UniProtKB/TrEMBL annotation:
Record family assignment: Belongs to the phosphoglycerate mutase family. BPG-dependent PGAM subfamily.
Gene3D superfamilies: Phosphoglycerate mutase-like (3.40.50.1240)
Gene name per UniProt: cobC
NCBIfam families recorded: ribazole_cobC
PROSITE patterns: PG_MUTASE (PS00175)
Protein name in UniProt: Alpha-ribazole phosphatase
CDD domains in the record: HP_PGM_like
Length: 198
């Protein structure tokens, strides 16, 4: 089984350096261009299934890359692959958060794995949500399937950690670039990372 993990193109929020979870910003001009380039990179890959998060930036990216009128591809919006909910930090930048939530921000730096974003989601709940989502997709798929997931940086990190056996500890070992895809080959009891940020 081949699994292609796609991060949406850059958004206006990304360009401004904002924490962007459930708060949606439109794709920037750079992000739209990234998606067009990504479409050409994926032209020769035959897919059976495409899953995408509920966030508008992921849906716009999926729409730019894939032909939703195709009867040969199964499409599904899946909330398991939404970005983490940053709560009160959503839409704020590093300077604002580190100044106005200094104690909480230090707790996040000290151990992100046990942190719960104020009025948002805990990292553990987020990771478990994504992990369960990817396990379910693998469970209902065939060995010969080629599957794409259009999602977010945090979501893709969580999937990579889960499938490659890093668990929470490996979350910040990957940089996931906008408008790029990563590719894994999945076997019965293991996964191999073939491509990162192409």
């Amino acid at each position: 089984m081949k699994l292609i993990l796609i991060r949406h193109g850059e958004t206006e929020g990304n360009h401004k350096g904002l924490y962007q979870g459930v708060k949606d910003y439109p794709l920037s001009e750079k992000g739209k261009l990234q998606n067009l380039k990504l479409k050409s990179k994926l032209d020769n890959i035959n897919l059976n299934k495409v899953y995408y998060s509920e966030m508008e930036r992921a849906k716009k990216t999926a729409d730019a890359i894939f032909d939703f009128s195709s009867s040969e591809i199964y499409f599904e919006e899946n909330s398991s692959f939404n970005e983490i909910n940053f709560g009160l930090w959503d839409g704020r930048d590093y300077k604002y958060i580190s100044t106005n939530y200094s104690e909480q921000f230090q707790c996040f730096i000290d151990d992100f794995k046990i942190f719960k974003f104020p009025e948002g989601e805990s990292f553990k709940d987020f990771y478990n949500r994504v992990s369960e989502g990817i396990k379910e997709i693998i469970k209902v798929s065939k060995e010969e399937d080629n599957i794409a997931i259009v999602a977010h940086g945090g979501t893709i990190r969580a999937i990579l950690c889960e499938l490659l056996g890093f668990s929470y500890e490996g979350f910040y070992k990957f940089n996931i670039n906008h408008g790029c895809y990563s590719l894994l080959t999945l076997y019965k009891d293991s996964a191999v990372l073939e491509v990162l940020n192409k």
